[in-house]
Amino acid sequence: MTRGLVSTASTIIVIIYIVGAGRWVATDADWYRSLNSPAWQPPDFIFGLIWPYNFAMLIVAGFVVASRDSQTEQIIWLASLALSVTAALLWAWLFYVPHSLQASGFALGAATLLTLPLVVVAFRASPLLGLALVPYQIWVAIATSLAFSYAARN
Prior knowledge:
Largest sheet: none
Shape: elongated
Radius of gyration: 16 Å
Oligomer: single chain
Distance between the termini: 47 Å
Structural class: mainly alpha
Order of helices and strands: HHHHHH
Number of strands: 0
Strand content: under 5%
């Protein structure tokens, strides 16, 4: 597996994440606003700050992992990234399209678990990079909690 292939594949996966999540999240704003949201829901502007950061760090991490890590760790990175993005996109679809709130929480729970290897592999490539991905891990865990909270309240 070449470094160029790993970094390109990683970037493509993140672009699919950006486009897919954006497509589904924007589908039914009125429905979303009608939900009984938890009091601890972050304000909207936080989403606008954290997601670009998370996406940028995932792309940067793909390049760093491709240039510094072993082939085994590169495979772990790509597999974990693809699976976690699949789970996160499943959350977006379940939450915003059929409005399956409980199922969406389980999808995000899977995404949360699947992001752990990303942080570990990133730490091995660069401790600073691993730290830079911790906000993504925390954000996905918070989103999981929010999804289950929405399911319980609605």
